[in-house]
Amino acid sequence: MLRLTDIVGNASDPDIADRLHHIEHDGGVERVRLSRNDLARRRQRLVTDRGTELALMLDRGAQLENGSVLLLEPGRAVLVMLDEPQWLVLRAAHAAGALEIGYFAGNMHWKVRFDGDCLWIALEGPREGYLKRMTHLLARGDANVLDAPAQGGTRYLTVPHAH
Predict the structure, then answer these.
(1) Total Cβ atoms within 10 A of residue 63
(2) How many CA atoms lie within 13 A of 133 on its CB side?
(3) Which residues pair with 145 in a beta bridge?
(4) Which helix (H) or strand (E) segment is 78 a member of?
(5) Quick one: which of 40, 101, 124, 129 is 20 to 30 A from 87 by CA?
(6) What is the pTM of this model?
(7) Does residue 19 sit in helix, strand or coil?
(8) pLDDT of residue 28
């Protein structure tokens, strides 16, 4: 059993994201799925999607969240995934923008789904990290984040999933 006592960071942190990207290519990223209630628990036994047993023993001040990285070492990482995916929904402003967004999302290895002319990006970390990484596309007007609230920002859409 692997004992983990710290949160290394979040998958949306650019330095960590780059490392995870390379580890993912080598097949070394393991994920644990937690409900919102489980995110509040500091001590728990978990099993990754590859069957690795974990004993999670975090300090009282530690805060698990979607995208928390529990282990990050050469060739291996353990990532927390919220079991209720959140989505960021984009609509391309034009065909070239659709190609740019699709290419970018694929290059980032983001999990996506398509619904009509919209690209749904499954968030594996704070949405701000995703928006920051797409700043160049959004600033050029290649895409719009759908259903902006009064602040002119974004809206999360929770959609049902298979399990």
Answers:
(1) 10
(2) 22
(3) 90
(4) strand 76-82
(5) 40
(6) 0.59
(7) helix
(8) 95
Cα gap 54→105, rounded to integer Å? 31
| Residue in the structure block whose two tokens are 């928006």 | 131
Q: Is 37 helix (H, G, I), strand (E, B) or coil?
A: helix
Which pLDDT does position 148 carry in this prediction?
Answer: 42
What's the pLDDT tens digit per position in 23-82?
999 999 999 999 888 988 999 999 999 999 999 999 989 999 989 999 999 999 999 998
CA distances from 123 to 63, 95, 129 (A): 18, 24, 9
Q: State the pairing for strand pair 156-158/76-82.
A: unpaired
Which of 88, 76, 64, 73 shows the shortest CA–CA distance to 25?
Answer: 76
Strand, coil or helix: what is 84?
coil
pLDDT, tens digit, for every residue of 115-148? 888 899 988 888 888 999 999 999 999 998 985 4
Q: 76-82 and 29-34 as β-strands: parallel, antiparallel, unpaired?
A: parallel
